[in-house]
Amino acid sequence: MDASAVLGSRAQRDIPKSRRGRDELTKKLLLRWERTSGRSRERLIDRLVEINMPVAHRLAQHYAGRGVATSDLEQVAYLGLTAAARRFDPAHGRDFLAFAVPTIKGELRKAFRDAGWVVRPPRRLQELQAQAWAAEAELIQRLGRSPTAGELASHLDADVGDVIEILGMDSCFSPNSLDLPLGDGASATVADLQGREDPGFERSEARIALAPVVRSLGERDRRIIELRFFRGWTQQQIGDEIGVTQMQVSRLLTRILRDLKRSLVGEQAA
């Protein structure tokens, strides 16, 4: 059914403005469902869709501003509503919206999956998410409530950890800005909570790499390395400590550092 045609006919049809009125009229239509067939049922489906189009419109607005045009979202939501009306089975439950809402959401999310990702998850999780959206509507009608992550995982024969992960993947469509304040009137932002590179990591890596080659040095060479790089002594202070001149200390350091470099290159090659 063409959504624009339905929109054009709304003004000519008696549609309750209140949610309660629409719910009551929906229930009356569902009571007639089992007694109709053929063209009569098609007209009943059209009427059911027409009455509940405000619900689809609100759902589309909820996803607006996330990278997909609002008009496109509305069309997707109306088509999802139509699909829900055609697939709905009153024998499994009388609450049409409990079945239709997750169906519409699923269609809207599919639109984002195809065109609206800002942060794109692995394809495996995208496919599992699409399966979960379809299964959610089916389980809601069967259970009479929203399924748990465990029930979805069991239905899909999937890992419950993966299901929990995909249930939180909507933020990939429109991640929060790093400049978003942490609260009303707060000066701190999301960026303030992000981790920063610790300069200590480089020092730790250097110590891990150097430890075995330093241990291979002679006792005096290790003493010179300790005094110069760990205690911060000058070459003159080191010379006075080990009984050589400052110039000799300079030459010793050059030779020790060259030996260390050769040992490191040799280990990396090995």
Structure description:
There is one protein chain. The chain has 270 residues and is mainly α. 67% of the residues lie in helices and 0% in strands. 19% of the residues are buried. It folds into three domains: 1-116, Four Helix Bundle (Hemerythrin (Met), subunit A); 120-174, Arc Repressor Mutant, subunit A, CATH 1.10.10.10; 201-269, Winged helix-like DNA-binding domain superfamily/Winged helix DNA-binding domain (Arc Repressor Mutant, subunit A), CATH 1.10.10. It has helices spanning 3-9, 19-33, 38-51, 53-62, 70-87, 96-115, 123-143, 149-156, 160-167, 200-215, 219-230, 235-242, 246-269. The chain is built from 13 helices and no strands. It starts with a helix and ends with a helix. α12 (235-242) crosses α13.
Taking pLDDT < 50 over at least 5 consecutive residues as the criterion, the unreliable ranges are 1-12
Gap between N and C termini, in Å?
Answer: 70 Å
Helical coverage, percent range: 55-70%
Strand content: under 5%
Q: Mind telling me which CATH architecture of the largest domain this is?
A: Up-down Bundle
Number of domains: 3
Average pLDDT rating: 75
CATH domain fold name of the largest domain: Four Helix Bundle (Hemerythrin (Met), subunit A)
Cα-based radius of gyration, to the nearest Å: 34 Å
